[in-house]
Design a protein that fits this description.
With about 150 residues, the protein is an alpha+beta fold. The chain is globular, with a radius of gyration of 15 Å. The termini are far apart.
């Protein structure tokens, strides 16, 4: 009998995030259309929360300052959970892992363009609203949110 692994967060190559980005965030677009321009910038990293050997949740992080802030920040993009795994706390564990990792760098905060439907998820993690609602064409309404980690 195959031994089950405990659920865990792992660093992954960005290519492993593309199927879930396509399915959850981009309405089934081809994988090549789901590559972000920041996927391979210096300092970028990609995380997946695995249940057994299946990716349940993903998030990508890269160094980018928010607005006119001078301190180094990281932007979170491409956060998605497979519908079958929603509500199990995997997204929270993934972001908490990223916070601990980023806290060991010189970065002072993490920010994101959060879908309006995900505002409460980010608030529970300590993120605060940093903008009014705005529309991202073809994707939907969002807010800028920020979490100061130092």
């Amino acid at each position: 009998m195959k031994k089950l692994q405990s659920p865990m967060v792992k660093f992954i190559p960005f290519e492993l995030a593309l199927p879930l980005r396509s399915k959850i965030l981009r309405n089934g677009q081809p994988l090549k259309e789901c590559v972000l321009p920041t996927d391979q910038v210096d300092g970028a990293f990609h995380l997946a929360f695995y249940e057994n050997e299946e990716i349940a949740c993903i998030g990508s992080f890269f160094p980018k300052n928010y607005a006119d802030r001078k301190e180094l920040g990281y932007q979170l993009r491409g956060m998605a959970s497979d519908d079958r795994f929603k509500g199990k706390g995997y997204g929270t564990k993934l972001v908490q892992f990223a916070i601990e990792y980023i806290d060991k760098t010189n970065a002072e905060y993490i920010w994101c363009n959060a879908r309006s439907s995900a505002i409460e998820f980010y608030k529970k993690l300590g993120f605060e609203l940093a903008s009014d609602e705005f529309e991202i064409a073809g994707i939907g309404p969002h807010y800028e949110m920020i979490l100061n980690i130092k």
